[in-house]
Amino acid sequence: MSVHPGPSLLVDNIGELVTNEPYGEAGPLGIRRRAALLVEDGRIAWLGPAKYAPAADGRIDADGAAVLPGFVDSHSHLVFAGDRAPEFAARMAGQPYTGGGIRTTVGATRAASDDTLRANVSRLRIEALRQGTTTIEIKSGYGLSVTDEARSLRIAGEFSTETTFLGAHVVPPEYADRPDDYVSLVCGPMLRAALPYARWIDVFCERGAFDADHARAILTVGQAAGLGLRLHANQLGPGPGVQLAVELGAASADHCTHLTDADVDALASTTVDWTSGSETTTVATLLPGAEFSTRSPYPDARRLLDARVTVALATDCNPGSSYTSSMPFCIALAVREMGMTPAEAVWAATAGGARALRRDDVGVLRRGARADLTILDAPSYLHLAYRPGVPLIRQVLHNGVPQCQ
Ligand SMILES: [Zn+2]
């Protein structure tokens, strides 16, 4: 309990409150009707039936609308310069996506000033916030030199505590004919320079990027240095990424577009055991913006959910393969194209993202959780998928503070 509590704020007259705290008949989203919640010191101090709402210094009238936890976008690449709209146009005219365009952004990012990079991250962070995202993971990966990776992470850290070192995004041009030397650089000087600014380490494990041996070497040394593990896995074709993520206890295997039955079984084997409270789940983070933007087949979320794999949804926001910061857009795609119900998609975009970041203070609305929430311009969370492309985020509270809309 704080000795000097700040002003309290009551969000009142909530028609449908998504808590992600299952109880009774409330279903997995833990829905409460005619509810209110009280915010104090950036946390939720109370929630319950509106008729029992306590007094507060300030009040927001939700006017019968739906309120849900702020979105947790657990996968983005916001530190870059330039854009690649012509590449997108070429793909839409029939050219395939290979991942090679990453090098275009590396060149632009290296040439950019700190201020340019910072302004771009800031713009995208605000854009995401306006669409309801209150937690966002940000990766490096367009610097690919010791100094450029460190500064990318330093700038990312100005906007999020969920920062990920992705020096192993692609092998940069100057190392094209000696990838082993680049892996040594990533595992040595680049990792040391990144460490002060990173919570996670990630590898793009894919044909044309890094193979399983390289990925294992990089992740193992990162883990030994104290970083949590994430992995870009099985995006462009079948591969070893998912199995490697599970083997190493990664928090998340991201993309999961091309999976064998053994991959699904491996992910399912990590499903959290709540009785023991084990924190070894490898979440399958699905990034439908990438399939949309590369006109590729979507991952089969239904198959994963039916196998009881924990699923998260994230944007993969980046200038090449998924230039969207919109979690509502990803929810709509997941429902329409990936076999998810609206409830499953909303859970995956909030609580699922939190699991992928191994956080229990976000993605959920309960006493003591961060007061990160969105008030919709709609009576139900269903409208996020039912009314795609419509700006339904009326208000966002981040750490209990109302944000400008
Ligand atoms: Zn990515």
How does the overall form come out from the CA principal axes?
A: globular
- N-to-C span: 31 Å
Which hetero compounds are present in the coordinates? zinc ion
Major pleated sheet? 8 strands, mixed
Number of strands: 17
Explain what you see.
The protein is α/β, with parallel strands linked by helices. About 35% of the residues lie in helices and about 20% in strands. It is built from 13 helices and 17 strands. The chain has helices at about 85-90, 100-110, 115-130, 145-155, 180-195, 210-225, 240-250, 260-270, 290-295, 300-305, 325-335, 340-355, 385; strands spanning about 10-15, 30-40, 45-50, 60, 65-70, 70-75, 135, 140, 165-170, 200-205, 230-235, 250-255, 285, 310-315, 375, 395-400, 400. The strands form three sheets. Strands 1, 2, 3, 4, 5, 15, 16 and 17 form an eight-stranded mixed sheet that branches. Helix 5 links the parallel strand 9 (about 165-170) and strand 10. Helix 11 crosses helix 12. The longest helix has 17 residues, at about 115-130. The two termini are about 30 Å apart. The mean pLDDT is about 95. Bound molecules: zinc ion. Zinc ion binds next to loops.
